[in-house]
Amino acid sequence: YLQDTDIVNNACSALSEISNGPNYRIEAILQADENLVVRLIEILLGSTVAEVQIAALKVIGSITTGDDNQTQRVIEALPSFVWLLDHPDLEIRKEVCWAISNITAGTTEQIQAVIDSAIFPKVLEQLRSEEFKLQKEAVWTVANAVSGGTSDQVWYLIHEGSMPLLCSFLHVYDAKFVLIILESLENMLRVGEETKRLETVIGILSDCDGKNEIEKLQYHDFPRIS
Fold first, then answer.
1. What pLDDT does residue 172 have?
2. Whole-model pTM?
3. Which of the four, 16, 90, 104, 210, has the lowest number of CB atoms within 10 Å?
4. What is the Cα 10 distance to its own chain's centre?
């Protein structure tokens, strides 16, 4: 709660190290100060030093790796994430996407909270970045939501234009990354079939050349892909 930038940075770094581990360590910092998340959000929005904002983001990100109840404690940070995804610092945007991806790996209610915060359009913008590490975090955000979301939530992501963006990464060398995308596309096709909109989903795949890219992957060197 001090104003000295170095002290705040070091305090956030310490909390990040403490909470980077088993859930009981996350619970320890949450119980130590019930206003911790509020203070972290103040730092995110009030600091003009990227290093300090990143340190605060790492604490929030660590909390989101906990159980669903612990993750729920940082839901109130979502509005600040919307703003931070426009930040010029790439590392800040990467940390934000990492935290959001942990939230979308949670409950359907938490996925809905991300949707309601109008964050996904900003996340999809990160897929147009030229920085692969940032793109990967953004893909995980979408993939987790598609994997655990309801049909309506998955359809929302389809409607927002996520499929062509995902398909644009099917040619990358990272096999694990390609698998994540293929699983997401498979889930989207499944939702299309369940909601009787399969032709629409297939049409989106065809229009972005996704079908051709998927067919090429039948000859991929990695067996799980082919």
1. 85
2. 0.94
3. 90
4. 26
